Amino acid sequence: MKSILSKLNLLVIISVLLVGIVSMSLWSIREDQQIHDQQLATILQIQQGIDTLRSQLWIFLQYKDKASLEEVYIAQQSLTEQLGEQTNFKHCIENLEKMNYSLAVLLRQERALEDSTLQSFPHSVVTADMSESRSLLHSRYNMIAQSMGEELFHLQQEVHVSNRAQQEKALAMTALVLLFFTLLVSFTAILIFKQFKAGQDVIKEGIHNLYNGDLDTLISIPKLAEEYVVLVTFFNKMKVSLQNHIVTKDELEREVKLKTSTLMHQTDQLRYLSERDSLTGVLNRRAFYHQLDVEAQKALSSGTLFALLFIDLDKFKAINDNKGHNVGDEVLATFSSRLKDNMRPTDVIGRVGGDEFVVCINGLSDEANIESKLDYILDVLDKPMEIKDESIQVSCSIGVSYYPTQSDNVKEVLELADQAMYEAKKKSGSRYFSLFKKMQSQVTEAKSDCQ
Prior knowledge:
451 residues, alpha+beta, 2 domains, five-stranded mixed sheet, 12 helices
């Protein structure tokens, strides 16, 4: 009985027995009540027969004729049949049967006396002896009828008393059984609760120690239920296994920091590779256009503007065709390196085509500050490149547009810079061109013509 499960099984068995015993007790009480109801119904039927007999006797005593006597005789025979049918109630109606038999004897004497009177005295002359005999018989009728009523009343009282005693006995036995099994169930439940509480406290303390990092203290096994002994044994084995395999807190923190740093570095590398052109190291087309949208938002919020430089290398295809793609790649890498070295850290550089670059020079207050910067950039980019022991001269054409001066749409500003680049290509050598300057010149000439 050290197992909680065995106690629970016992509790279930006790509960089933309790339900069965209570059900049997209630069934027994119900059967006793049915027997009592049947006895009362029998007594009621006999009462009706006796009442009928008494009423016929009263009529006969009033009229003293042969017809009334026959009715009394018929009522007595009917009562005899009723009493004879009560086989299950025989021992209780023996006195009634005796009284009914005595009444039948008297009625036969009455009939015999009536017959002899008619035969001896056809003219209805009644002697004093006959009158006295009849009076005696009539008195016996009344006594027997009254005695039958009293006997029936006592019988009814006896049935009530007997049924009440049986019900009290059944209720007392049921109450005792209920009390006994209730105490047994309560005792078993208390034992289960104590064992469950003791095991719960031990397991709770062990888990709390483990939560606080205590891997050394094992759970002791006092008088616990078998189920908790299994749990505690497994828990102790788990702590021993953790002692052999788990690292310390500092080691874990160092490992986490190292893994986190490595992951962040790898993430930065992946982000860099996804946003950068693999040959030149500047932003690729997708990343540059995304950054250009960011720069547009900054310009609108700060009230500044930025210039877009659309740069195309002149006759780059001839270099690829004549000197090979390796030399062409070296030219592009050197060109982009010069761009990066001569731009501010805040400026954005991107490669949007094979030999096409776009530079965003941000944070400008007006358009006038850009021309000196463009001249300087052209001087740097126009210098010869030493590639594989060979000097290569590469010129470039630059188209310039301004955001939001020319347009507050980034796509349109890019298109304007592209158009300006093609205008610059119409002239030989490294050049830059701005449609904005051309527009300003046209406005100035129009004003002069008007004057």
